[in-house]
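Subject: Serine aminopeptidase S33 domain-containing protein

B.,
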Amino acid sequence: MAVDQLTKSNEATIILTSGASGRISALFSLRVLRSLFLLINAFVLLLLLPFRGRRRMTSPGTMMTSSGSSQEKAVVVERKGVPVVRVPSKMVPRKSAVEQEVAARRSLAIRRVIQEDDKETLREFSLFVTSKGDTMFTQSWTPVSFKVRGLVFLLHGLNEHSGRYNDFAKKLNANGFKVYGMDWIGVEFPQISSFWCENVTCEAPSHNYAVYCLLTVYVEHFHLNAFGHGGSDGLHAYVPSLDDAVNDTKQFLSKVLAENPGLPCFCFGHSTGAAIILKAALDPKVESRIDGVVLTSPAVGVQPAHPIFTVLAPIFSFLLPRYQFSAANKRGTLVSRDPAALLAKYSDPLVFTGSIRVRTGYEILRITAYLQQNLCKLTVPFLVLHGSDDTVTDPEGSKKLYEEASSTDKSIKLYKGLLHDLLFEPEREEIMKEIIDWLNQRLLNC
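Prediction pasted inline below.
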């Protein structure tokens, strides 16, 4: 009843989504149809380019627009007899807004680490530069009163950040585990430079209009240059490739192991973070360096709202990768039965609460499909935990993982009636104890 009341009273301001959620139902909105029309029209005009005669604009100041709006105009001028399309600077994506948003999030993430006043835990942060040049926010929790016996490498779920697991990290510290967390990010997405926009040339007005249509679609749907979580680079919730998150995980894990030689290392992942951990663990080079994996609500079984989305996802992820399905999360998906935990999560500025993007959903479906085809190759020891009433990731996926994995040391526990965010459920203490007991037992065998 308390959860129902919270949902009703806050549904106007709090969107209850998490992990791989965002079931899509409003596929063919007016905005999508308009964008598809512009894209198809542009391609048709470009295909006709070789068959059109050379034309010259008589008025250098002619405005080329798709809707007649004074807010979006491409000006066609002549330079030495060659028509040139000039796109207004405000139509060109600017990194300044992205950088400001990232700076604000990173500042908040750093401030939370610095303000930590727990005398039993030393909490520190660092910035890790990936192989692609992106800056990733990472943090660590080191026990002060206990000898470090092992390491736990922690990966959060989609739309959240590593700082949400502060309480769990302290519990691990109290048992002699040093914890590392990273706010995972992804690959940069190509942008149109102002120089290119200033120098696009076509031989006919119709072809200038075709280029303008392509630019309009690009600006409207492709202006984000990266996705990010917490204090890391990129804007929230746009995931062009989970493979890059897997590669970043491997790189940072190598750094952690190099800094702590000789210590047993375990990996923990939640939801999409668990899927990233699993794919990384399938790499023999990673598998040989870790001693076990703990997974909560792993995104091994994620089903779209309708089977047709599986067919359309690759197409729409290519045409409209960052389009958000605004109707997908109107009511939201409960991820915890604890009202206080829900309020804390969705009032956190570092947690993304918007609708899922097309490319993000497709990437989750893609990594899920990959894992289901390769579960039999997993040999690392693992513990998987899942709530039976989880509506974000399918508990049947965890069962399949347990049944098909080749690991000789594997355990599964399903919690009846629990939802997606297990470490934020009312039974969180019991679940943390289950995880720590499993880690301690494996530590004795190392």
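Residues 197 and 215 are 9 Å apart (CA to CA).

T.
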